[in-house]
Amino acid sequence: MSPRITLAIAARVLTQLRRDHRTLAIMLVLPCLLMALLWWMFSDLPQPAMVPGQPEMFDRLAPALLAIFPFIVMFLVTSVTTLRERGSGTLERLLALPMGRLDFLVGYALAFGLVAALQSALAVGLSVGLLGLDIAGPVWLLMVVAVVDALLGTALGLFVSAFARTEFQAVQFMPALVVPQILLCGLFVPRDSLPDVLGAISNVLPLSYAVDAMSSVRDSTDTGGVGGDLAVIAAYVLVGLALGAATLRRRTD
Amino acid sequence: MDDAVRVAGLTVQRGGHDVLRGLDFTLAAGEVTGLLGPSGCGKSTLMRVLVGVQAGVRGEVTVLGQPAGSASLRPRIGYQTQAVSVYDDLSVRENLGFFARVLGVGHGRIDEVLATTGLGDKADAVVGNLSGGQRSRASLGVALLGDPDLLVLDEPTVGLDPVLREELWATFHTLAQRGAAVLVSSHVMDEAERCDRLLLMRDGLLIADGTPDAIKQEAGADDIEGAFLALVRGGTAGGAA
After folding, report:
1. Which residues of A touch B99 (CB under 8 A)?
2. What parts of the sequence cross the membrane (chain A) (predicted)?
3. pLDDT of the residue at A169
């Protein structure tokens, strides 16, 4: 691996993204619009609702969504762009050049990680600043979790792109790999109230830890618990990148 | 001159059948070798073998003194794939700049390559907006960036204006004179006369290997197209299988 090549790839991906105004707008503005929609949905309900001591609905759901958005967006963007690179012959050309496979993967992860940081800054800023999201922990930690979630989406997207032949197939992987994680992450049913089998499955899905991390930032000023969740997600990111590297074969048919 | 490429008993299996069936040849440094044959005869596969990105390779393939695909060869080989493998959404200059950084060559090379490929006035145009020939030249430019010792060009002159084609062939000869081995594939037989040496290919086999004049003389034909036909009908190599 060489820092020069890794950074060259990250810079190139960002230049391509900057050229594509529509994608950039969707990546940055869409999460904000969806957070606003969520807030608006609950705005007419009698406040404070629920049992005393329980957070309001928006406060309950918003952190989970802040974890899920960067994950989904980065998963989609990464799997489609990598597939494009495989199909156009540029990947073959790069693999014939002195580029390490990790240069390629880490370059992509860096570029998309940066976009994710910007995306989360906007969505978190809007939620906390304008929509009144009430969190106990530090706001920056919310962003750190969001960026790590985005990297998780990037790693998974890189891996999945090896198994899709077309962009159409790559997009179809989303409902298969992402929706079950959303259903089981604790957003709908608390994870410890799930049936045993589903609880066990939920325990091995990375998004569960992302949502757990977000929830602990919301509930507690003690940042210790978040570290453990972040470590689990980071481990998944590394495994995803390693699997992605394994699928990048220099020699192909 | 030293042999830049030595190939012995090269067979490539793809999808259960042999795409290349026992090739033996050498490529000399300082020469432009034309790899000619109809579409689907195995030209691209052979080129991918030399560059080291083809799977299922058997036989001995030595490139610049090392086994094909060795990591140390990657900076020394310039490769233009048949598909235009540059980024459509970047400008020509941005594409060259990116690949120059991957190769670790200075930015001065970019202007040289722009001049060589005649893309100076299109340097800041986004590749996706260029014509097919211009895009192919941008892709060729990337292959030239590293000043390679072996240049492997898969159909670089397809669809180009004759004047430009003439200029590019002159460029290939200039690069060869500086000591590079240049392998250029084409399915158009009339490009044969521009090569120092020819490899004629059909159906995964080499049916002729020599200078254009020697091949014509041996086959008793006036042009390479005729020689190709005579060789195939005579069953010199291809008919036996």
Report:
1. 93, 97
2. 21-42, 62-83, 104-133, 139-163, 170-189, 230-248
3. 87
Positions in chain A short of pLDDT 50: none
Q: What pLDDT does residue B127 have?
A: 96
CA distance to partner chain B, nearest, from residue A188 (Å): 41
A185 vs A55: CA distance, rounded Å:
18
Helix axes A3-19, B92-103, angle to 10 degrees: 160
**Closest Cα in chain B to A89:** B85
User: What are the pLDDT digits (tens) for B65-83?
Assistant: 999 999 999 999 999 998 8
Residue with tokens 């610049």: B64
Distance CA A110, CA A95 (A): 19
Q: Are strands B57-63 and B3-14 parallel, antiparallel or unpaired?
A: antiparallel
Gap from B2 CA to chain A (nearest CA, Å): 23
Distance CA B52, CA B99 (A): 18
Fill in the DSSP letter of residue B54.
B
Tokens of B184: 């250029």
Tell the residue number behind the tokens 């699997």, with chain if given.
A243
Which residues of chain B fall below pLDDT 70? 1, 235-241
What pLDDT does residue A167 have? 84
Chain B residues 20-59 with CB within 8 Å of chain A: 51-57
* One-letter-per-residue 3-state SS of A150-166: HHHHHHHHHHHHHHCCC
Q: Which residue has the tokens 């001159």?
A: B1
The position carrying tokens 């254009």 is B212
Q: What does pTM read for this prediction?
A: 0.88
